[in-house]
Write a structure and sequence with these properties.
about 350 residues, alpha/beta, TIM Barrel, Lyase, Ornithine Decarboxylase, Chain A, domain 1, eight-stranded parallel beta sheet, six-stranded antiparallel barrel, 11 helices, 18 strands, about 25% helix, about 25% strand, binds pyridoxal-5'-phosphate
Length: about 350
């Protein structure tokens, strides 16, 4: 007896990941911190880290000590960088394992200084230039540098900040780049090994800084552009797929799914074996979305249920149980689905559930 294949799966295209990384390198002309938090945006934390480990990256960007530990246990050699403020309870492990934190407050600075008493800790300084999520504000920078001068337990190896509206507000973001550059220029003793970083995907696509030598793309590496003008340069890494379980011939006036969406014509309706329990958003119900089945775009009918969706295949000559459908991927952009679902592609990708098998190609 062989094991049944999964009903819903995500095919992960490794070569697309490498192509997107090359694009990020070429386009920015800077070193890359690959952001792999959130289980590499749903693509699989460890598998993506393994794929990137040979790429000579200075850092892999993770959300917390737990993600850094998973890399550590798998023998990944690229240094984890903890994006954002650390919890007091995480810091001992971060210090002991040599992961790089970014100091977001005086409290964090003092604690890491103590932890680095015997063997100093390499850390970056976080600047708050508009995100409001931690880091030193312009009025605090002088004091932060002054205090750091009295922290023998910390070796400052870089400085960073984050962009809240790089994909929405060009004017604010331009000013933010200028503010960041001028703050960085006031930090003494920067040599060429000192890492200076500000840009996420949108920032690296459309903005320029005088001081940075490192960028932190996430979404872009997975082949989705936060700015649609650049989508043509990227290759979606994930294709989300499922299969037809049954094809039903339903008469005009028949209901479909919970809430009974009433059919306006005689309809050939195919059931696919995935739903919101796999991470296909329920909020796509009734939003005019399609799936790609046997080469044609077929409209979603009625509400998305936990484990099944129903699509209109009336126009398809051929549709059989077992036929494969693409929910999103190179042919149907997850960013377009996100607009219809009233969310963002980052959320859809990270909400694909463990039930969905990831297949690496
Ligand atoms: C998530 C994150 C990124 C990556 O953002 P994308 O828009 O996915 O490129 C970069 N920097 C920080 C601090 C982040 O939290």
């Amino acid at each position: 007896m062989t094991e049944s294949p999964p009903r819903a799966w995500a095919e992960i295209d490794r070569s697309a990941l490498h192509d997107n990384l090359q694009f990020a390198r070429r386009h920015s002309g800077k070193e890359i911190m690959a952001v792999i938090k959130g289980g590499a945006y749903g693509h699989g934390l460890v598998e993506i880290a393994k794929e990137l480990d040979s790429q000579n990256l200075p850092f892999l960007g993770v959300a917390n000590a737990g993600e850094a530990r998973r890399l550590f246990k798998e023998g990944i050699r690229t240094r984890p960088y903890i994006l954002g403020a650390t919890l007091p309870s995480e810091r001992e492990e971060i210090a002991a394992c040599g992961w790089t934190p970014c100091l977001c407050s005086f409290e964090e600075m003092e604690h890491f200084n103590q932890l680095g008493n015997d063997s100093p800790i390499k850390a970056h300084l976080a600047l708050d230039t508009g995100m409001g999520r931690g880091g030193f504000q312009p009025r605090q920078l002088g004091e932060a540098l002054e205090k750091l001068g009295h922290c023998p337990g910390i070796i400052l190896t870089g400085v960073g900040s984050h962009l809240p509206v790089a994909d929405e507000d060009t004017e604010f973001t331009r000013k933010q780049f200028e503010l960041f550059d001028s703050m960085v220029e006031s930090i003494p003793g920067r040599d060429e090994t000192f890492h200076v970083h500000l840009s996420n995907s949108a920032g690296l696509l459309d903005y320029h800084s005088r001081t940075t030598n490192l960028v932190r793309p996430g979404l872009l590496l997975y082949g989705i552009s936060p700015l649609s003008a650049h989508q043509k340069n990227l290759k979606p890494v994930m294709t989300f797929k499922s299969r037809v379980s049954v094809v039903n011939h339903l008469p005009k006036g028949h209901g479909v799914s919970y809430g009974r969406t009433i059919l306006e014509r005689d309809t050939k309706a195919a059931v696919l074996g995935l739903g919101y329990g796999d991470g296909y958003p329920r909020s796509l119900s009734g939003k005019g979305v399609h799936v790609l089945l046997n080469g044609s775009l077929c409209p979603l009918l009625g509400r998305v249920t936990m484990d099944q969706i129903i699509v209109d295949v009336t126009e398809l000559e051929n549709c059989q149980p077992g036929d494969e459908a693409e929910l999103f991927g190179p042919n149907l952009l997850v960013s377009d689905l996100a607009v219809k679902a009233g969310t963002i592609p980052w959320e859809i990708l990270t909400q694909i559930t463990p039930r969905v098998t990831r297949l690496y190609r």
